Amino acid sequence: MTDLSLLAQSAKAWPFELARALDKRVNQQVKAGQRAADDPVVFETGYGPSGLPHIGTFGEVVRTTMVRHAFEVLTGGKIPTRLICISDDMDGMRKVPPTVPNPEKLEPWLQKPLTAVPDPFGTHESYGAHMNARLCAFLDQFGFQYEFVSATECYKSGRFDPMLLRAAEKFDEIMAVMLPTLGAERQATYSPFLPISPSTGRVLYVPMKHVDAAKGEITFVDEDGSDATLPVTGGNVKMQWKPDFGMRWAALGVDFEMFGKDHQANAPIYSRIAKILGHRPPEQYVYELFLDDKGEKISKSKGNGISVEEWLAYAPDESLSLFQFQKPRVAKKLYFDVIPKAVDEYLTFLEKYPDEDPARQLENPVWHIHSGNPPRADVPVSFALLLNLVAVANPDDKSQLWGFISRYAPEASAETHPLLDRLAGYAMRYYRDFILPAKTYRAPTDKERAAMQDLSARFKAFDEDPTPENLQTLTFAVGKEHEFENLRDWFKALYEVLLGQAQGPRFGSFAALYGVENTARLIDEAMAR
């Protein structure tokens, strides 16, 4: 066992906690003869291809990838792992998405499997195939290592056949699990099997007239009113989503899956179905859902959240991974205001990492974000500081920002510090779209005016080394001399009067970056307003 594997035995970061539970599961199954020691450990995430991949898709895959890597480190890489991303593309199309071209042309295809619906974009053989391609492209841009699996292919190729035949044998047991969870009206029509109509090709929600377990066949009333008998194999039938969850676990030998809190009530059902079909349910992890700025659950239909594309327009993807890593079992607000904080927290963790001892490094989020190999990143200017620099410099392009940055950090350039260069572009875009429209400058009180004028005069006469620390000390001293009982009020006044916002970075750091003379001029202009 390597030193890193030993450290992983006691690491407190949540991916390691899950990895240890998974390791315990594997050892138990090996001892019981239920698996070979070198059988791959299967991680799974699911995707509904009726819509585009979204921030929840990213979160589920990035978090599962973190657990997978933690498990590989814990076990010293001796046990192979697989990450399956399965698309539920045999589901019937319940409604036509309003965003597709010529949506009226898809109306006749309602309730047909998504992989039987024509592709309105004209790029793939079906709507389901198009959305699956979008999923893979989405995951590939982040470098995830995964195996894509199509539910349609599993049903049609026979991969699910053994479990479907077993489900026919265990039909009554499955019904005994499902019926108590349904209302009386739904109980009367419920079946865990959803046949594909021989006459219309639609996914049917109809009761079974007969289930022949010996033959592996079901009989039901088709849409044309006639009795129809189909084998449960060969893609003729799919399962209702709750039994399908458990069946999929059994058929694919899934060892680990995480899902949102909206699945928590149904998780015991999934597990019971898997057990009925002869498979130990996987280790499971329930994460909290994101909230919008009003504390309401984010919903794709409401459009009250942030898309991955929107986040990446203003910040690097590592900051989004950090947001997903932190406290996954706590409901967090996900809206545009959280982006700058996430960026600076990522930079802080990245800066600390090289100087931490190995045990501490395993607790650092960047270890998990970068699969144990975080880059060395020297970013001498925080994102918050860049935002405030943009606010006062009002640059037309990044090169103007670099004029200030290079004076503040002479060793830095766009070529030597590409991450900082990207952050400068993000800051310009974020400031333009979110900070500028909300800016409200206020006039200083008489006390504040006197203090700010004093600060301006001292900046003009400043002849020491203009380091952030020296300028912060001077600003602090001025506030104290002008009898601000709570110096937070003094700094808050500087932000509100000079920058038009209630919060900002350390004022000394800002003055050092913007320049002492420029900062004095900024104060004078604010006083003249």
TrEMBL record:
<dbReference type="InterPro" id="IPR008925">
    <property type="entry name" value="aa_tRNA-synth_I_cd-bd_sf"/>
</dbReference>
<dbReference type="Pfam" id="PF01921">
    <property type="entry name" value="tRNA-synt_1f"/>
</dbReference>
<keyword id="KW-0436">Ligase</keyword>
<dbReference type="InterPro" id="IPR001412">
    <property type="entry name" value="aa-tRNA-synth_I_CS"/>
</dbReference>
<feature type="short sequence motif" description="'HIGH' region">
    <location>
        <begin position="49"/>
        <end position="57"/>
    </location>
</feature>
<dbReference type="GO" id="GO:0005524">
    <property type="term" value="F:ATP binding"/>
</dbReference>
<keyword id="KW-0067">ATP-binding</keyword>
<dbReference type="InterPro" id="IPR014729">
    <property type="entry name" value="Rossmann-like_a/b/a_fold"/>
</dbReference>
<dbReference type="InterPro" id="IPR002904">
    <property type="entry name" value="Lys-tRNA-ligase"/>
</dbReference>
<comment type="similarity">
    <text>Belongs to the class-I aminoacyl-tRNA synthetase family.</text>
</comment>
<keyword id="KW-0648">Protein biosynthesis</keyword>
<dbReference type="GO" id="GO:0005737">
    <property type="term" value="C:cytoplasm"/>
</dbReference>
<feature type="binding site">
    <location>
        <position position="300"/>
    </location>
    <ligand>
        <name>ATP</name>
    </ligand>
</feature>
<keyword id="KW-0030">Aminoacyl-tRNA synthetase</keyword>
<dbReference type="InterPro" id="IPR020751">
    <property type="entry name" value="aa-tRNA-synth_I_codon-bd_sub2"/>
</dbReference>
<feature type="short sequence motif" description="'KMSKS' region">
    <location>
        <begin position="297"/>
        <end position="301"/>
    </location>
</feature>
<dbReference type="GO" id="GO:0004824">
    <property type="term" value="F:lysine-tRNA ligase activity"/>
</dbReference>
<keyword id="KW-0963">Cytoplasm</keyword>
<dbReference type="GO" id="GO:0006430">
    <property type="term" value="P:lysyl-tRNA aminoacylation"/>
</dbReference>
<protein>
    <recommendedName>
        <fullName>Lysine--tRNA ligase</fullName>
        <ecNumber>6.1.1.6</ecNumber>
    </recommendedName>
</protein>
<keyword id="KW-0547">Nucleotide-binding</keyword>
<dbReference type="GO" id="GO:0000049">
    <property type="term" value="F:tRNA binding"/>
</dbReference>
